[in-house]
């Protein structure tokens, strides 16, 4: 082996022995520094969320909400289970008001799957073009109408599983249809109910499906059928996202939200 090559190897070994302790010390210092940096926010800056309300408080909350609105109604306009299904599909990422404006003339001429199918995708698109994602929604409305005609004899199925296989229909839409059209005590969780449930809190959970499962397990039976409407109306008009209207809230004294408005 050439002398130059052996010399380089020896030099490298010496450097490794000299620098290894220093590198180890530096790594230890960095690790300690990083650990300290992470540890402080985790212990000092994490706010403890209030525990969900107890059973007696839960009953009182729904008693007050029901007293405020004894006969709540869906704000989406519909004529029958089919038009309700279409309206809820169209309401994704859109306001109820915009959907109602579009569906009034649409439902006047197409209030059954057969009539909607005969209308065709292009004409449906013309009615709903003021609604967000109208191209996709028009395709879904025609596709679900076709399935209802060919598979279900033109009727809307009354099971979660059969509803959810329809184009544009997810768990929330299926739950709304079951609850509103068929009187099944389901609590479809939208952004309002998700916020209200975690804020009061009724059920603390990171996803809408877990909030729904939690609410359906704890809401007292006499209030379960209309709980969906009461919580949506409460979240839409009082317990609003940016600035909840706590001074006029009917459950202000029962809510455990730590950042109430004055």
Question: How does the SSE layout of this entry go?
Answer:
Blueprint: H1 3-44, H2 55-68, H3 81-90, H4 96-109, H5 113-119, H6 121-128, H7 134-152, H8 160-164, H9 171-182, H10 191-199, H11 208-218, H12 221-237
Helix pairs in contact: 2-12, 3-9, 5-7, 6-7, 10-11, 10-12
Tell me, what's the shape?
Answer: elongated
The residue ranges in which pLDDT falls below 50 over 5 or more consecutive positions are: 1-47
Number of strands: 0
Beta-strand residue fraction: under 5%
Oligomer: single chain
Number of contiguous helices: 12
Q: Quick check: average pLDDT?
A: 86
Structural class comes to mainly alpha
Radius of gyration: 29 Å
> What does the largest sheet look like?
none
| Helix content, binned percent | 55-70%
First-last Cα distance = 84 Å
Order of helices and strands: HHHHHHHHHHHH
Name a few traits of the molecule.
mainly alpha, 12 helices, 0% strand, 262 residues, elongated
